[in-house]
Write a structure and sequence with these properties.
9 helices, two-stranded antiparallel ribbon, 2 strands, 2% strand, 2 domains, mainly alpha, Arc Repressor Mutant, subunit A
């Protein structure tokens, strides 16, 4: 009886935790998209009542302003993530320009929602703070998108590694030697490619530096370099040159 009661309570606890996780994740996904509603309404009122925009134009412009804010914030985060993960030889993205555009957007929103208002100063401060809520929502959306992308990349890499390991383990006895050699050759070629990529970014690196940073021994690195030279991908004549 006690064991069944404990099992029932544990099941209830797991159910509550699952519901809690789904609820929090749903709220975290939906609420940031609702954050621009308040500043969009204030922008609509300012353009409709003060600037005398037609109703339809004020509504469309208010929506465009808030969606544009989400787009600029997401672009800035995407550029920053790219610069953090790119190789040294890849061009940098214009993240500074994206940040300046985001700041300009914030200034425009604050001006439209506060400076055009004739209410007392404290009311203008409150409207300015409410206008910045869309920035919080945009940042949250961008952060969640970046995190989701990283999680998917990690999951994909794990599945690839698991599939490779499973493929090696499931080799039949008849052709185990051949497939094991093929797997070894593939692994060796991947190591050579990583070494080549390292040399592309660090052409003047010493053998000891390459061995340390790639996790290989010095004789192995010498072997890789000889193969890369034989393939015509690098040249060494007192100075290493990537071809």
């Amino acid at each position: 009886m006690i064991e069944k009661s404990v099992h029932f309570l544990e099941s209830v606890q797991r159910f509550i935790k699952a519901v809690e996780t789904v609820f929090i994740d749903t709220v975290s996904t939906v609420i940031p998209w609702l954050s621009p509603l308040v500043p969009a309404f204030m922008a609509f009122r300012a353009m409709s009542d003060v600037l005398n925009f037609p109703f339809w134009l004020a509504a469309i412009t208010a929506g465009v302003i808030e969606l544009l804010g989400l787009a600029t914030i997401n672009t800035a985060f995407s550029f920053w993530n790219y610069n953090q993960e790119k190789r040294k030889i890849d061009p940098r993205s214009p993240v500074q320009l994206a940040i300046l555009v985001t700041l300009y957007y914030l200034i425009v929103v604050l001006v439209v929602n506060t400076m055009l208002d004739n209410s007392p100063d404290m009311h203008k401060v409150a409207k300015g703070l409410l206008s910045s809520i869309s920035i919080v929502g945009g940042v949250t959306i961008a952060l969640r998108a970046s995190h989701s992308r990283r999680v998917n990349e990690i999951r994909t890499e794990r599945e690839r590694v698991r599939s490779m390991r499973k493929g090696v383990k499931n080799v039949s006895a008849g052709d185990s030697l051949q497939q094991a050699n093929e797997a070894k050759a593939i692994k060796r070629q991947e190591s050579i490619e990583r070494t080549y990529a390292y040399i592309v970014e660090n052409p003047d690196a010493r053998i000891s530096d390459i061995a340390r940073d790639t996790g290989k021994s010095r004789p192995t690195i010498y072997d890789y370099l000889n193969e890369l030279k034989a393939e015509g991908r690098i040249k060494e004549n007192g100075h290493r040159e990537v071809l």
